[in-house]
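Example 3.2
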Amino acid sequence: MARKSGKTGTRKMPGARTGNRGSGATKGPKSAAAPAAAERIASALEAIAAAMSSATTRPDYGAALTRADAFIWHPEGRLVPVPRVSRVDLGLLRGIDRMRDILIENTERFAKGLPANNALLWGARGMGKSSLVKAAHASVNAQAGGRLKLIEIHREDIESLPGLMEQLRSSDFRFIVFCDDLSFDGNDASYKSLKAVLEGGIEGRPDNVILYATSNRRHLLARDMIENERSTAINPGEAVEEKVSLSDRFGLWLGFHRCSQDEYLAMVRGYCSHFGIKIDDAELEREALEWSATRGSRSGRVAWQFTQDLAGRLGVRIATK
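Structure, written as tokens:
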């Protein structure tokens, strides 16, 4: 029995030695590869840390804001300067005298550091809502010595508005944040970000920022959305109030309505006089009315489009500011 036990132990020994040789053979490469792997991991961590640091570092807007009077906001945190703003001279905006005077006065107060309201310009399309905002900025900024900046934020980027407010809060400039054609459809809940910025948030709107928005809708929501809320909600009044309360947070409402024929012709004549387009008045009136009839509407936009067509046919160049 003792010899059998010894033989069994002898048979196991070669296997054990083979295993030891295999283990010993792999230890060398592992010990050599370990420092290289550690170095790669360390390098990767350093690269990640550098990327995170650069991503969280806020850009210095102080110098950038002096390069232009108008900017476009991008949701990733960039303010892109606009060297030349597409705008119409304030004197060419006809048929909206009352709204023009109110918005100019509100903007002048804001530029001077006095209390002013956020403004919602709503109503008929093509009646100069966005043109008035840009023209008002140009007019007041000329008096303010370039301290009033215009920043456009696109409708789809409204959710990034709190981030923009944070960037502008500490600046010495004053800002009009402008959103053109603002409206909400379906189950879009991004309007809540705008509500918090306008009023109701802990920080509130910065003192050096005011919001101007244009919309074809008085309450920024489609009528069928409001009616649907009334018909399906358990408490229709509360459901409607939740959505309609957004427009209530604009302190200044300016309504734009369809112009009359006389106002439309005054717009056309004003454009022709400003750009030096020479044409018999009776012929001008006939062609302008025919143009509006083919478009099915009368508005400032239609008057401008007719003027461009007329200038092109007569070989007159048009240069806007």
